[in-house]
Amino acid sequence: MKIRLLTALVAALMAAISAAGLATGASAEDRPSLVVAVQGNPPSFEPLTTESLVAYRVIYNVFDNLIDVDYTDNYKLQPGLATEWKRIDGKTLELKLRPGVKFHDGGELTADDVVFSFGPERLLGENAPGWPAARSFWVNLERVEKVDDLTVRFVMKEDDILLEQRIAGWTGQIVSEKAFRAAGSWEEWSKKPIGTGPYKAVENKPGEYMLVEAHDEYWGGKPTAKSVKFAIVPEIAARMAGLATNEYQIITDLGPDQLDEVTSDPNLDVVGQPVNNHRLLTYDQDHAVLKNPSMRRALNLAIDRQAIVDSLWKGRTNVPASLQWESFGDMYLADFPKYAYAPEEAARLAKEAGYNGEPIAYRVLNNYYANELPTAQVLVEMWKAAGLNVVLEVKENWQQVLMDDAGRAIRNWSNSAIYPDPASSLSRQHGPSGVQAAYKEWVNDEFEKLAVTLRNSTDPAERKATFKRMLEIWEVDDPNGTVLHQNAMFYAKRKDVKWDAYPHPYMDFRPRNLSFQ
Predict the structure, then answer these.
(1) Strands 410-416 and 360-365
(2) 325: helix, coil or strand?
(3) Torsion-angle region of residue 449: left (phi > 0), alpha (psi -120 to 50) or beta?
(4) Which of 34, 287, 400, 413 is buried most, with the most CB atoms less than 10 Å from its CB?
(5) Containing H/E element for 245?
(6) Backbone angles phi, psi at 179, to 5 degrees
(7) This prediction's pTM
(8) In terms of Cα–Cα distance, which of 481, 479, 468 is closest to 415?
(9) From the CB of residue 43, how many other CB atoms can be counted at a distance below 10 Å?
(10) Do β-strands 268-283 and 481-494 pair in parallel, antiparallel, or remain unpaired?
């Protein structure tokens, strides 16, 4: 009887533990779900539709690239969907695919999917939905060809020393050819594209949330979260309140003012750091007042960038030497001139340009970037002190910010170093195939020619000299805009969520970077 009683007690205890979700070997349904409160989401799960800070964090978890990047080790390249690769010549790279990789719909990855991902129906064709992205990221790509079921070759039009970096970067994500064709249209495909990443796209409710669920056959290990919801909560105060009550387990885009409040709560942690992304301004060279380059120089000289970093960021980020990052290694221009703060010179240049106080519109969003509005308000006062009549215009969306009309003059933006080379930002985003040219904000003939040289040259000395001259044009001779500061991304999280932020805007919820205590 004692044995039977003991057995019954043990059985009851195990049942109670199991009911509480604490039993060893819990089922997939017992895994925690994660809710991340964000200030905005991308329009879709398809990476070719947008490149933005909000897209990086969601889409990175849905897709894989052939080559992966270790963001904790200075952007070191490592195997992804390809286990190895080798150069055939300066134009050609051969990659061996990882066998047995499963797509979200159960299909198996083959070379045909890789060829299709970069092919004329999705990316390279002039009528392909990805053509705008291809012109920026893959202007030199001639073709991707199948060698056998698990081997592919990338063939470029010219020698390309950055080919491996491009394959590992944005728009290098691999999709399922079969699923793409079955979707029937680009619109339907974009709602739930099929990749190989740790989470599969489930639902996108614009203005509310994006939901992804665990892909348990993920080649990198079973995801540790059952699902991840990226819930849009525009106000930081609401994100903070939800974190305190465990409605959200991670929140994004903290300003320095919130960091002490978070760390004072024993249940919460702060993670984050300056990232390989710079906050910057861009100028429309066709604006009636800004046609004269001296006016754009005046705008740049009137900005006290260090004061912005010290006051609004409490010194937690830095003012870089123009549009570059130290991760560029040998291409980094350590001796490039630091920014000058010279409001008197700014006023002199404006007077010399014949400026008579005409209003200059400055278009911003409502804190799409952390500290966006406070920074904009400070800038307006700095310009005012130099006699520049800049008028702040808060817009609802990017379409309104970028609208090509007579009022477009100054706008907010940011640039990321997708890979550690100046071509990743300066050539790609401001060159002949970049965003600036596409929106007809700024074109400079010398700069465009240099952008091609920077992209195609294999001579390190020539590339470095080219890069320096491009920076001189971009911010001094014919200013396209200016860098304000290196962007810093801070997140608050529950302490029982073991997750770390990279020095890159991606949020990685793969098993290697997410666990629960």
Answers:
(1) parallel
(2) coil
(3) alpha
(4) 34
(5) none
(6) -70, -35
(7) 0.87
(8) 481
(9) 14
(10) antiparallel
